[in-house]
Amino acid sequence: MNDGTITLPWLVIRQDDNGNRYRVGRYATRSEAQDIADSLDSRGHRQLYWVERVGQNGQNGQSGSK
Do 15 and 56 touch, CB atoms closer than 8 A? Predict the structure, then answer.
């Protein structure tokens, strides 16, 4: 399959001060996604960033740290 869900299964999610959640980007590896989340988190804003894995059916699944 050449679906983005398969090739880019890791998401970086941002939650703002009002609890709204946004997808920041999709990445091939958890490490790559975590590096982005850590970089954004280190900027000192009040937003929360974390990593999630997209499940095989395209739904968000396993959460990472943050």
Answer: no
